[in-house]
Design goal:
Elements lengths: L8 H7 L2 H11 L2 E3 L5 H9 L7 E6 L6 E2 L1 E5 L5 H25 L9 H10 L8 E5 L4 E5 L10 E6 L7 E3 L2 E6 L6 E5 L6 E5 L2 E6 L2 E11 L2 E4 L1 E7 L5
Antiparallel strand pairs: 1-11, 2-4, 3-6, 4-5, 5-15, 6-13, 7-11, 7-15, 8-14, 9-10, 9-13, 12-13
Helix pairs in contact: 1-4
């Protein structure tokens, strides 16, 4: 009997409901990608955290008042799955990024090919890879922040849940806040299961109002892990200086 091979990361990304994800990003500032990673994928990625030679740096959050927990930035070459996520997602997001910038009156436009965008980063001295694994234990959390590493910033990023909520850990919800002009901040708690991903803005997005569109500022973080261990993969498309 011949067993069929599971779909590749690229095929899973292509099979997502992109009109729904795009509409959610426009309306609510986030789009959920269901079951992009298998349980086996999640376990394999989470285990890399203990292989120090795959990373360029380790950050202990408490030392920098970022929260509690830690994370590690990958070094080049990236693991195949992570490279596939970067190169598979970018073409789906670049039109949204360019449309948002046009709406907000921002002159920057992004090339259709991811290789051209990463070359733009590298020519500007942003050569350090930014995909990262985050590790949280009981009582750990991540303060609200933005992932900006230099002049060239792609306006969307993604995070993938590698652990099982309610099984491996409790608490630790992904939080997105939106600061609207002359209004109090609005918070969203984004529900993610193991293998799910969320796409969200790095720092701002356009919102349609009664007098046209305006910019809102966003930050993201993780609420306190009440028990267990939580690991997450972050995919950032621009590299760092």
């Amino acid at each position: 009997m011949t067993s069929s091979r599971p779909p590749s990361i690229t095929q899973r990304i292509s099979a997502l409901d992109w009109p729904r994800i795009t509409a959610s990003l426009d309306a609510s500032a986030f789009g959920i990608m269901k079951s992009v990673l298998t349980q086996k994928d999640c376990a394999a990625l989470a285990e890399i955290y203990d292989v120090d030679e795959r990373f360029r740096s380790r950050i202990v959050m408490a030392r920098h008042n970022f929260g509690r927990g830690e994370y590690k930035y990958f070094s080049y070459p990236l693991p195949e799955m992570i490279e596939s996520l970067r190169t598979g997602l970018y073409p789906r997001l670049v039109d949204i990024a360019n449309r948002w910038n046009e709406t907000m009156g921002i002159g920057v436009r992004y090339p259709e090919r991811y290789a051209a965008f990463i070359d733009r980063c590298h020519r500007a001295g942003q050569t350090k890879p930014t995909p990262l694994l985050l590790s949280y234990g009981t009582d750990d959390y991540n303060c609200l922040h933005q992932d900006i590493y230099g002049e060239h910033v792609f306006p969307l990023q993604a995070a993938f849940m590698l652990s099982k909520p309610g099984g491996d850990f409790t608490g630790g919800e992904f939080i997105l806040t939106e600061q609207r002009p002359r209004m109090q901040s609005r918070a969203e708690v984004v529900p993610l299961d193991q293998g799910d991903g969320v796409i969200f803005p790095v720092r701002q997005r356009p919102v349609r109002g009664t007098r046209g569109s305006y910019r809102v500022t966003l930050r993201h973080g993780v609420s306190r892990v009440r028990s267990g261990s939580r690991r997450t993969l972050g995919i950032i498309f621009h590299d760092a200086q």
